[in-house]
Amino acid sequence: MSDCIFCKIANGEIPSNTVYEDDQIICFHDADPQAPVHVLIIPKKHIPSLDEVKEEDKELLGTIMLKVQDLAKDLGLDNGYRLVNNCGEDGFQTVKHLHFHLLGKRKMTWPPG
Ligand code: 5GP
Ligand code: ZN
After folding, report:
1. What is the pLDDT of residues 47-67, one digit of tens each?
2. Model-level pTM?
């Protein structure tokens, strides 16, 4: 997707503060952090949202979920963390490229606003 900001981050066109990258995913610090640690985990493949994940993306999704615990260790989130996916209009998704927010180093509240 030529006009997608996260595709541009994934292909290096736009720089990011990257914490992990491989051929399938890239993880980088959010530009507007909502917690002392706020990292975005995205597939390099353009998938618009969680609602548009396909059967063929099953393994990719599993890879992303398993990466969370590695990142949490690397980022020192020893006391827990929150993983968030905003999906669609009501979910307040602003970037239409699938991503998960990994937030930590502060006590989260529940329910979300
Ligand atoms: P959403 O609301 O779609 O779940 O979250 C999008 C997130 O992407 C927001 O937290 C926003 O701060 C972050 N973001 C948007 N553009 C950029 C960018 O160019 N670089 C980085 N690092 N984060 C971005
Ligand atoms: Zn994209």
Report:
1. 999 999 999 999 999 999 999
2. 0.97
Tell me the residues surrounding ligand 2 (ion) with CB < 5 Å.
1, 4, 6-7, 46, 97
Q: How far apart are CA 107 and CA 80, in angstroms?
A: 9
Q: Which of 13, 73, 22, 70 lies closest to 43, judged by CA? A: 22
pLDDT band for 112, please (50, 70, 90 cuts).
confident
Pocket of ligand 1 (CB under 6 A): 5, 14, 16, 28-32, 40, 86, 92-95
CATH superfamily, with its number, for domain 5-104: HIT-like (3.30.428.10)
Q: What is the pLDDT of residue 2?
A: 79
